[in-house]
Design brief:
With about 70 residues, the protein is of the alpha+beta class. The protein is built from three helices and six strands. The longest helix has 7 residues. The chain is globular.
Length: about 70
């Protein structure tokens, strides 16, 4: 779940990025322990900022939750 600054709660499914499309930049995150090492700032990032996902992607592709 992601709570965006604009006050919207959304759930983003990383399955497509990690397993369906197999983007090379995200391969490290297939390891659950690495995936859990995220930092949140204006983006979600991993690996000291070498891997990130934009808030726009989270907002546009996330499913609204209550």
């Amino acid at each position: 779940m992601c709570f965006l600054v604009i006050g919207v709660k959304k759930r983003f499914d990383f399955y497509g990025i990690l397993f369906l499309h197999d983007y090379p930049a995200f391969r490290l995150l297939k390891n659950v322990d690495e995936f859990k090492k995220f930092n949140g700032s204006d983006t979600l990032e991993w690996n000291n900022g070498n891997i990130d996902i934009t808030p726009e992607t989270l907002y546009e592709n996330g499913k609204s939750i209550s």
